[in-house]
Amino acid sequence: MLLRVAWAPCMLLLALALGCAADGTREAVTPSPHPPTASPATATPTTTASPAPQAVDIRASRLAIPSLRIDAEVQPSLVVPDTSLPTPGCPTPPSGSTTFTVPAQGIATPVEKIDGLENKAWIFGHSRWQGEPGVFFRLQDVNMGDEIFVDGVDRRTGERITGRRFVVSGLYLTDIEAGGRLVTAANPAEVPAKPVVILQTSVREDGANKQWILDQQKVMAKSRNMIEGDINDPCKYLLLFVFAQAS
Per the confidence metrics, is the pTM higher than 0.85? Predict the structure, then answer.
C-alpha cells in the first residue's frame, strides 16, 4: 500500500491512502510593543540570551503507547512515484507526485530527513487494511496526557535513542491540505522548541459514499477540527493526527 505525498512551497501535503475499506480499495503572532527609550541617567540592564534548544532528528524504530497496549516496530518508508488512480469526480493530483511506502500491517516512518519536519518524528500507519484493524485503529482511543515512548536514532549524529518519553498534547482532525499546514514548518520560527512525535492515520477515504473508518462521534469529540469547508465533501480525505511533546 502506498502513501501519496505532493510537494508545494513551504508545505508538505499528505495524501494518505491508509484507511482501506473492507474490500482493500483503498495558530497568530502579535508584535511586541517597542520598549521605552532609557534616559541617559538610567543604566540599561543587560540580558543574556538563552541558548536555542537543540533539535533532534529522530528516525523512530519502535513505538510504545501503554494506554493503548501498542508496542510496535516502526518500519522504514521510502519515497516512490505515485501511480495511484485519481478519485472519480475529484481534482487530479499534480503530475510527478510521489508517495511513501506503507506496510500492509504495522507502522512506518521516512528513512530520510523531510524538510519542514525539523524536530519532529512522523509515524504513520493504516487504521484498517482489507477489513482488518491496523495498529493505528486504536489511535481514536488515545487521550490528552497519555504517554508515548520512542526508540530510534538521531539521523544527524547517529546517536541511539531509547525509551524517549513524550506526552500527548493535541489531537487534530484534518483533510490533506489542513494536515500539510498543521504538520510542516514553513519557516524556522515554526520549528518546535522541544522534539515532537506526530502519529497519523486515516479517518475516512475520499470518494462517493465512503464511510468513516474510525468512530466519528469519538473522533469529533476529542480532536480539534482543522478542516476548512464541508467535512462531508466526498473529495476530502480525512486524517487523524496525534501530537506528543517530549517531556
Answer: no
